[in-house]
Write a structure and sequence with these properties.
By secondary structure, this protein is mainly beta. It is 0% helix and 45% strand. Strand 9 (109-113) and strand 10 form a beta hairpin.
Amino acid sequence: MTKFRPCLFAAAAWLLLPFATAPLGAQPAILAVEKPMATNVPTGSSFFDWDSLVSRKTPVGIYRGVVDAPTAQFARFEMHVTTLNPGFESHPLHHHPQEELIIVTKGRVQANINGQAKTVGPGSLLFFAAHDPHNAKNNGPDPTTYYVINFYTAATASVRDQPAHEWEAPELLHSAAIDWNELTPKRTASDTRRYFVDSPTVTFKKLEIHATTVAPGAPASTPHRHLWPMLIVVKEGAIQATIDGVAHVAGEGSIIYMAANALQSMHNLGSVPATYFVVSISSEQTPAG
């Protein structure tokens, strides 16, 4: 059984997490950054409450570190939350080997990908394929907040140093900005879902992302297991997750990491609907099932 390890943020805050990146036309490099105060290691399932994330002011807004560590199926899992002030961009146009996910929760973001710009709002998803030039800018009147997610697989280390859109196979997921308002809600007996992607990518065996809205008092899922890890980001409301017998209520902005094979179930115990994103990623190290 997967060991459950809740996160204690008072002793596990990051000042600034390193990630591989390069300006357009340059070779990827590791940025020189401050060392973290401690390490959040997701050896088992973990909760990351929004109110416990340590914020750090930057020249363009606010940075909140979440985690940067290896997992059982990934060489590295890095995640942080960025708040951009109006008129600022996160960084210049750049590229890197890891495929990156961005979930927008507040404000509006102009995504620049492969020379094309698209502005999306809360609930939207950005996917940057390996080495595709990209950046993000807040072109709205208010601060914008988004979650940055990087999973490094074995394929990440050897991926071709060339923009993926120039060579990747048609069946693989290409870089995209998917607007929440362009998705069609699909109702089931217990919830409403919006589906973003379900596809292999250059470095992932499979990437599946959807958002689920659960009515007050309703169960989101009965106890079950997955061979792959799952990442939950709560958009609004609150959800109670029970993982390997440990229950925790995650409110708006909070994050749940469910390790592979963890026994999990979720329930909306609140008086208002709860909406959360579900990110499932399989690598070549994920067992077939």
